[in-house]
């Protein structure tokens, strides 16, 4: 017998995310056409189900978002340094990720900033993690939602991207659980993406 507390909206959103990410990763040549459209759909789903949390004043969430974004990038930079130091066979995978999925044209960067980054945070933290928090404690909610976030990246066929999504998901999940501010995690995600795609790529 299914519990009356079973969250059908959460399950429906998660299955929808898998469906959309599956099609986003099917053809890397049109990835940047399908991916932003998929995030628009997930954004609509999220805002129809949940209110946007914004419990931190502007200056504080901007400061915390910028600092945390740089810290997360530093963590990834250190990871790449260790890969090079120990000559691990992952450099080719990182280069392939950049070649296949990083934005290259101006409109793709606009889509990243205005659609993909806010959409991911609105859905994965503002919808998925928020609903899981109703059923469990903070740490399990962060780990479960991060694992769910990482799981949709399996369709890239790149384990390193799945792992990167898991790590970043944990960081943004902890930030969201700490301050319950979506603008904060959106700024953090944006700073991280600007660093990793534009200012200091790791390929």
UniProtKB/TrEMBL annotation:
Residues 105-195 form the CAAX prenyl protease 2/Lysostaphin resistance protein A-like domain. It holds the Pfam family Rce1-like. One of its GO terms (molecular function) is metallopeptidase activity. The keyword Membrane applies. Signal peptide: none annotated. Keywords: Hydrolase, Membrane, Metalloprotease, Protease, Transmembrane, Transmembrane helix. One of its GO terms (biological process) is proteolysis. The chain crosses the membrane at residues 7-24, 30-47, 59-79, 106-124, 160-177, 184-202. InterPro entries: Rce1/LyrA-like_dom (IPR003675). This is CPBP family intramembrane metalloprotease. The lineage of its organism: Bacteria, Bacillati, Bacillota, Bacilli, Bacillales.
């Amino acid at each position: 017998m299914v519990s009356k507390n079973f969250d059908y909206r959460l399950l429906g959103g998660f299955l929808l995310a898998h469906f959309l990410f599956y099609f986003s990763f099917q053809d890397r040549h049109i990835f940047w056409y399908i991916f932003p459209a998929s995030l628009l759909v997930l954004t609509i789903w999220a805002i129809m189900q949940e209110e946007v949390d914004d419990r931190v004043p502007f200056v504080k969430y901007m400061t915390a978002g910028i600092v945390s974004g740089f810290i997360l990038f530093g963590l990834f930079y250190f990871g790449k340094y260790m890969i090079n130091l120990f000559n691990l066979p992952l450099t080719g995978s990182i280069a392939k990720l950049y070649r296949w999925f990083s934005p290259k044209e101006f409109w793709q960067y606009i889509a990243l900033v205005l659609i993909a980054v806010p959409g991911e945070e609105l859905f994965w933290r503002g919808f998925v993690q928020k609903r899981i928090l109703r059923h469990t404690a903070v740490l399990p909610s962060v780990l479960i939602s991060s694992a769910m976030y990482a799981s949709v990246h399996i369709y890239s066929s790149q384990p390193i991207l799945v792992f990167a999504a898991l790590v970043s998901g944990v960081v943004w999940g902890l930030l969201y659980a700490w301050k319950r501010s979506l603008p904060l995690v959106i700024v953090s995600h944006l700073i991280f993406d600007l660093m990793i795609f534009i200012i200091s790529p790791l390929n």
